[in-house]
Amino acid sequence: MLLPEHSGGPVLSAVPTPAPLVALRDVHLAFGGNAVLKGIDLEVRRGQAVSIIGPSGSGKSTILRCITGLLAPQQGTVTVGGVAVRELRSEAERIALRKRVGFVFQQYNLFPHLTVLQNLAIAPVRVLGRGRAEAEATAIELLRKVRLADKASAYPGELSGGQQQRVAIARALAMEPELILFDEVTSALDPETVGEVLTVIGDLVAEGLTCLLVTHEMRFAEEISDEVYFTESGRIVEHGPARRIFSEPRSERTRAFLNRALGAAPRVAADPFVFSFDKLRFAV
Amino acid sequence: MATADSTVRGVPAWPRAGRFAGLLWLLPLVAVALAATRHPDLARALGSAWQWSPALLRGFLVNVGVSLLAIALGTAGGLLVGALRLSPLALLWRPAQLYVQVFRNAPWLVLIYFSTYVFPFEVNIGSHIVPFPDWLKVVLGLALPASANVAEVLRGSVQSIPLTQWEAASSMAFSRWQILRLIVGPQCVRRMLPPWMNLYATLTMSTALASLVGVHDLLDTAQIASNTVNQTAFTVLIYFIVLAMFFAWCYPISRFTRFLEQKHAVA
Questions:
Q1: Extents of the domains making up chain B
Q2: What is the ipTM of this complex?
Q3: Cystine design at A139: which of A88, A120, A260, B97 (Cβ 3.0–4.6 Å)?
């Protein structure tokens, strides 16, 4: 491994290290003749929460899939902790990458034949070689963190969307990744359960989790992100500190998008589930 | 469970009746016993049936044996063909598809005649002459369509597992083999079980076709008994018994299949 030993798990220091944990340089990707990414440059440093916002179909989810090696770009480089994702040839190398990068999907994608507890414990046991008892103890701990300890023996099909998504987040955390990618994790949820999932993510960010989020929750992105990227039709239109992007966007297109997005959606703060963002900002 | 929720609370009349419905099959037996006290013909037929019962049971054992061997062979072959059918290589999946289409679209009786008359009645292995009995040919004749159906069941179940399960599992650093073994495989087995058991029930019923190519199964024994006793009441009775024996074997299977289907619908 090219990096100094890292214990894994949420990084508690928010001090940016010189080398970014994730770096995309001029990434191009096309499905057939359909160009989805047209030269993406993006960085995530340890301890940072970075959001990608932008209209649907602008390639946001594709960026996440390139980082974890589910998709391979035709041009450009993707590095995670100094490892070039595109050069990974063997399955063992891809597995090594995916141990470091967690992924939470829009549709949760829990394993329906396993209980909540088994969903959390199976990868630590089978992939990381942990003992079953240890993995299950950790799993219970994580379930407590996402406020679902009482659902440990339930099957995913018995849970609501918001509960399933919180299990999926806990499942990603169980691998103690250095980074978690969140792919529109609230887009498939009922409006009343969006808040509970955002609260969990907000708590994790406050604890220093390094993460890259694709989201349509603008207020949420503004409150928790250190850095925000605005993408449109496969390109980064603009990026910068969250507060600046939202308060004084430089690009006319960013401004138009934010006006539409924020005009349509009420402030998240009106949601009863929402926690205090001020406390959070302090912690980050 | 949906069915449990749909019953109105406080009105348990139907579920309670259902508890005793299982005993309804005793009614015809009681009716026959009562009728036998009035009709000497029927009493004589019952006596003959009792005498023939060991032969009938032996015959039914042939049906059960043939069905178990055929489903075992058919499952093994079907899993293999189904795996080939799922291969991305045209060299593998095209022949597998041809096999499936040919044997799923052939009448089972035709396949039984086919295997009975196409295969030799004995095989020479070196200096040994190994007989190739009719019942084994029937097993093969039934295993062919069974394997084609199992292959199709396997393909359907694998393709019914959403690709996102693969994506989720690989993003959790599972290897391809682990994904098959731990994530996709178990989900496939669950989905395959009900149609596979349906297939077995159908196959068991089809073993009666073996009587047409001279295998001494239950139906063949019943025919012999009927001809030997040569009495109308006995003939009617014996075919009722044959029906009841097949029913007693297949009905619990289909009930269990339905139970699994309902369980699967929830999980």
A1: 52-266
A2: 0.81
A3: A120
**Nearest by CB: B187 against A98, A112, A127:** A112
Strand extents, DSSP E, chain B: 122-125, 128-131
Give CA–CA dist B115/B141, Å, rounded: 5
Say whether residue A111 is in contact with chain B using an 8 A CB cutoff. yes
Size of interface A-B (CB pairs under 8 A): 59
Closest to B155 measured CA to CA, from B93, B70, B112, B240: B93
Look at the domain A22-283 and name its fold: Rossmann fold (3.40.50)
Q: Which of A109, A112, A127 sits opposite B167 (nearest CB)?
A: A109
In this predicted structure, the answer to whether residue B81 has a pLDDT above a threshold of 90 is yes
Chain B contacts to A (CB-CB under 8 A): 164-165, 167-176, 178, 182-183, 186-187, 190, 266-267
- Where exactly are the structural domains of chain A? 22-283
B171, B176, B186: residue with CB nearest A68: B171
Interface of A with B in 136-165 (CB under 8 A): 155, 157
pLDDT digit string (tens) for B124-137? 777 888 888 889 99
pLDDT, tens only, B180-196:
899 999 999 888 999 99
What's the DSSP call for residue B213? G
Please report the DSSP string for A109-151 in residue order: ---TTS-HHHHHHHHHHHTS---HHHHHHHHHHHHHHTT-GGG
> How far apart, in whole angstroms, are the C-alpha atoms of residue B169 and residue B30?
59
For the domain spanning B52-266, the CATH number is 1.10.3720.10
Asked if A68's CB is within 8 angstroms of B165's CB, the reply is: no
Residues in contact with B21: Cβ distance below 8 Å, sequence separation at least 6, in sequence order? none
Chain B touched by A68 (CB under 8 Å)? yes
